Amino acid sequence: MENVLVIGIAGGSGSGKTTLAKNIVTHFSDRISVLRHDDYYKSQDAIPMEERVKTNYDHPHAFDTDLLIYHIDELRAGRDISSPTYDYTLHTRSGVVRQVKANKVVLLEGILILENSALRDRLDMKIFVDTDADVRILRRILRDVKERGRSLDSVIEQYLSTVKPMHEAFVEPSKRYADIIVPVGGENAVACQMIIDRIEKHLK
Questions:
Q1: Tens-digit pLDDT profile for residues 191-201
Q2: Domains of the chain, with CATH numbers?
């Protein structure tokens, strides 16, 4: 497929990048293809549960980014793909795949999509959602306790042991590669409209 626009939305955990992505997707419905880096966490089926829970999900090595890159290339070529999905309660991939149709616009979101140079080179528009750390940790606590069945203690321990140091080591430095920096993510209506306008222009 010619002239495919690939947009990447990066930012720390709880920054609001998923909300921003959802606001854009809601506007365009099925006219854009959506990929989530979180769906590309490596399978841990062969690892005992007590080992799975120790996985550092905020390190680049936790992701099968090569598969994600391959899928982006396939969508660019006009071919539909089958995206894996991840089960956070089992700490491994679920048995369900998500069918993603090829479109003229591909939207990718994830904490580390600007960290990998090969992935970054495939993004025509690189966006970084920049939100204060205290807001991000509060959002993460609410999400992980309510939606992912985690205890408050485990969320705080994970944040201090891996999320915060990995954010400082990998996520925050990747901000320098962004074309656009969006404060407070999905709540930034002006930035969201600017991105929507850019996509509309491309689709026309």
A1: 999 999 999 99
A2: 5-198 (3.40.50.300)
